[in-house]
Design brief:
Elements lengths: L25 H11 L8 H8 L4 H8 L2 H5 L2 E2 H4 L5 H10 L4 E5 L7 H14 L3 E7 L25 E5 L22 E5 L15 E8 H9 L6 E8 L12 E2 L5 E8 H10 E2 L5 E9 L6 H21 L5 E5 L4 E5 L10 E7 L7 H10 L1 H4 L2 E6 L6 H9 L9 E4 L1 H12 L11 E4 L20 H11 L6 E3 L8 H10 L6 E7 L4 E8 L12 E2 L3 E2 L6
Parallel strand pairs: 1-2, 2-3, 3-4, 4-5, 5-6, 6-7, 7-9, 8-10, 9-11, 11-14, 12-15, 15-16, 16-17, 17-18, 18-19
Antiparallel strand pairs: 12-13, 13-14, 19-20, 20-21, 20-22
Length: about 550
Amino acid sequence: MSSRPGPSFRYSMESTSALPIYRINDDILSLIVQINANMFENKGAFLFTRNASQVCHTWRQALLASPSVWARLLDIDQLRHMPEWWGHKVLRRASTAPLWIKSTEVGRYMQREVGFLLHVLDTRWNNVERLYIRTSTVEGTKVTHHDWNALFRPAPLLKELGLYISGLEDAVFDFPLLGDSAPSLRVFRAKDVKFSARATWLNGLRSVTVGNSSLPEIMQILQGAPLLEYLRIEKLDGEGNVKQQALPIVRLRHLKHLDISSSQLRVCSSLLECLTIPPNCSLIITRMFIPTKDTLEYILTDLLHPLSQFMDRYLAFHNSSTISITHSSKSFSLKDNSSPEEDSTCFALTICLEGNTGFTPYVLDIIMGAFSPALSRTAFLKFGTFRAPTGIIDVLISFLPQSPMIRTLETDERFILHLFEAQEDSTELLLPTLHTIKLDTFNVSFLGCFGGNNEENRSALVDYLVLRSEAGKPINILDLTQCSDLDVNTLIPFLEDLSLFGLKILWARYGMSNSIQQFEHVCEGSGLDVASRFVVSPSLSGASSID
């Protein structure tokens, strides 16, 4: 939110009405207008402001006297739906106020919209404060790299710049990007746009997002940006032995967030080794690939070491954080379970094998071993066994003694069967704090069924529930909301007969328009009519389980 004053709504006694809108405090009304006029947060900001300027004479005068509001509404995506003169009218109303410009579909524009955008950049460049441009490679686009010459002039007021312009990666310009002068620039996002790693404006940056870049290129940029607080690398290129390259060690004492996607483990590992950053810095790495050649134990262990070190420092600083582990057929993820908000401090790491293949027990064992110090802080485990080799299940279960804090287990009956068998062979109770079991599938034909008199024909889940109850560590919640076609009329009476007192069972029924009815039942063992104790929650859409 800008500190500049917004429109002043001053009503005369004659214009005051009994309508509530006329009794709103001037400052509050001005704030409402400013919030809704932010086109980077509100897609309909331009239409909102235009309509607000037509509510009444007082509002119109207030908005027309506020050039800073109109200067932030050069939304080319919206203006292209308006008569051509509207863009020029917005420019006139903006006067000399600092401009905000957004254009995300340049490749789809008619020539007049492209011409207007380039005209604004050419004639008002010194007034641009915030600029975001994304082009699409649509056949017939007539925007050439020469049309972007304004981007290579000094930008005295520019604070935020986002450039996703295809076709500029190989273009040759006579001047450096931003004329090597943008003293106010704090946020820079770019892809396929060349710029010098020695640019003076790097020194003031707080946030950087770059596209495909090699590790040496990234390190050069970071050397020139010591004040960085946010760094996102959309793809870190490189396959060779980057550890043999002479790379500098860069200290980023202010860095709060590091985000890397679609990169190989080897270059990610090398990057972390070259950075000295605060222990509270967030790290998000999505789709980090391990090539087959790097799966040898001595290589993989060495490459994972910088990541495990980072996580150890992170957990030491955030001593109340807990970890969630998710294993699917093709990925392994670790995440700070305490930070659900995207903007909050967090740790998230997703590892995949190159070629989109599944993990082998050998590789999973190395990965789990590398992050074993974090297992003691794990509170959530999700493991899908569909098509997973038995060896994969055995590896995961072998690490459970190191995870005494797991409270929620999301899996299927196949894993429960292996867990039950492992528990029978163990003298210590595995998962002593386990509170909730959530099944993503339940197939009574796979491992027996509920209600059978013969214990050998009984579900492994039932056996495990009984085992926990007899051990004095009963499961509190059995979440079956993701299981379709569940035979509740057979399930609940059977669990009641087993005296699983206090066990809460959750399930769901899907209705029209994707609505969901969620049900719950608490086992009492009283022999009463089960249906009379069903509790129906309000109809929900996209409901999740209760924990």
